[in-house]
Write a structure and sequence with these properties.
Layout: E1 2-7, H1 20-27, E2 31-36, H2 53-66, E3 73-78, H3 80-91, E4 96-102, H4 112-115, H5 121-129, H6 134-145, H7 153-163, H8 168-180, E5 191-197, H9 205-215, E6 218-222, H10 229-247
Parallel strand pairs: 1-2, 1-3, 3-4, 4-5, 5-6
Length: about 250
């Protein structure tokens, strides 16, 4: 059985995967999915978020060792989580067999105005400065990360925020970690697939294109989904991963 580690992005937690884990397991019955929260998020919201992506890698490795879940791992991760996956594969190549990186962006391959699209600057700044309500936060995040009008998602995300709120300090610490992270110029040894969305409103699709070009790895583009690709079209993600694994199977 193949072990898949799932990592979410900035301020998101395990339960934000929603139905995607089930969709992935249905497409690949041999997969064992282990979703992890990064410190500061979800059930770990009382912990301080690390200021370095490499410290997030240490957390993941320690957590898996305590659960006696041994490598090698396949990692499916998005946004900030994808940076953790890259740092992990780079530092411990014997532990990560494959990486699937979703809608991520990394120095030195992309400029800051592509890593966070300028149309969002004012919106996000207003949320912070005006101390927006939990509903305003989640409604805004949903609007800029999803291109689907999914009415049932907002109440679920709001409930998660109220139950396990991420502090403003931890959100800023995660932003700092993401901004500081610099990907290796040479692709880690792990087989790598990049998935991205042409209509991503948060992060420019050019970031994923640049990463795939520099590393000469697989790239597959979704024509209409938003930044939260597993939310907007989980079955497509699972299908792309399955096809990629089948094509690259020894």
């Amino acid at each position: 059985m193949n072990t898949w580690i799932f990592l979410r992005g900035l301020t998101r937690e395990i339960r934000h995967w929603g139905p995607f884990i089930g969709q992935f397991e249905q497409a690949m019955p041999e997969a064992r999915v282990v979703a992890l929260d990064l410190p500061g998020n979800g059930r770990l919201n009382q912990q301080n978020s690390p200021l370095r992506v490499q410290e997030m890698v240490t957390h993941c490795r320690t957590h898996l060792a305590l659960r006696n879940i041994k490598p090698p791992y396949n990692v499916l991760a998005m946004s900030l989580g994808a940076m953790v996956a890259v740092a992990w594969a780079d530092a411990y190549p014997q532990e990560v067999a494959a990486n699937v990186l979703i809608n991520t962006s990394m120095r030195p391959f992309s400029p800051f105005y592509q890593r966070l699209q300028p149309a969002n600057y004012g919106t996000l700044l207003k949320l912070v400065l005006l101390d927006a309500t939990p509903e305003a936060w989640e409604r805004t995040i949903l609007r800029i990360t999803s291109n689907q009008a999914i009415d049932e998602v907002l109440p679920r995300w709001l409930a998660l925020r109220l139950e396990c709120p991420v502090s403003r300090v931890n959100a800023l610490r995660q932003l700092v970690a993401a901004a500081r992270f610099c990907a290796p110029s040479v692709k880690p040894l792990a087989a790598t697939l990049v998935l991205a969305c042409e209509q991503d409103q948060l992060v420019s699709v050019n970031c994923s294109k640049a990463l795939a070009q520099h590393w000469q790895c697989g790239l597959r583009l979704h024509p209409s989904a938003g930044h939260d690709l597993p939310l907007d079209d989980g079955p497509w993600v699972a299908a792309q991963v399955l096809a990629w694994l089948t094509e690259n199977r020894p």
